[in-house]
Amino acid sequence: MTRIAIDTRWDGIAGIQRYSREVLPRLRTPWVSLGFDGDHLAPLDTLRGVPDVDLVYSPGYNAFIRAKRQLLTLHDLIQLESAWPARAKFLAYYRFVVRPVVRRTGIVLTVSETSKRAVEEWLGDDSVRVVNAGIGCSEAFRADIAPAEAPDPYVIYVGNLRFHKNLVTVLDALARVPDARLRALLPGGEHDDARRLFAERGIAERVDLLPRLDDEALAREYRGAAATVMPSTLEGFGLPALESVMTGTPVLYWRGCAAVAETADGRGTALDDARDVEAWAAAIRSSLASPARVAPPTTGYDWDATARIIDATLAETAAAGGR
């Protein structure tokens, strides 16, 4: 019997953490927890010894140099586009840790066709197979859910304050639309910085920071919004865009962000310039003045289907390592 150990430390409400939370319980392949604690992104974590198993799987990009074979999920390569000097450490990590691990294993997972192309180009190695396992969407995100109660129309943002998320452009735009309100779901640790950004633009009274929400509550927030703003300049997938359109709420996004454009697929307004504040202000103003609904995708986003692809890849990769 093949032996598979999974790093279960990716656990939370957003991004890779959410992916892990949805996928791991659905896997049918027998596996055990890697059994590690501590910060899975700590610099020395990659040097830890791992159990003597046929395969280690991580739902994210944290790699172990000493693992015989490790299957990673590279959701995107956004860190390689981060600003200096932070980019230097990521360039080193991906070159000297992630790439050798992926090449040694011969296969790597990702979540979209956009990311698949990016990973293939970055690897530059035709012997490595990049598998797009896709991504799912909770059944809570549906068009018939009751909208959240709100005294005034609003747009919603779900994400964080990282540079590539480009939230400051929307905040600058909001300052030019005096009657616009924003509801924002951000990590709790970023709330103080967010409040400072709001205050600097004189919009603090028109922005509501949402608490941590379960899927049902978040779906109601999307459903009640005139639009979801997603001004990202780079994404591996863009889960908020999918969740939004699944509730019938259009997305305002930059057409140059391929992953979000792939997910939104025209369900909303594609802006030509990611940082054109006037254009974002006009889009927000139009969404609030004339709220519209969009038809949700009917196929293609199923956590069970994603888990099945990962199951098959785990079995194939573990068996190859055991021969």
TrEMBL record:
Stored Pfam families: Glycos_transf_1
Entry annotated with the keyword Transferase: yes
Domain of life where this protein originates: Bacteria
Keywords: Transferase
Annotated ranges, domain Glycosyl transferase family: 150-291
Residues in the signal sequence: none
InterPro entries documented for this protein: Glyco_trans_1
Protein name in the entry: Glycosyltransferase family 1 protein
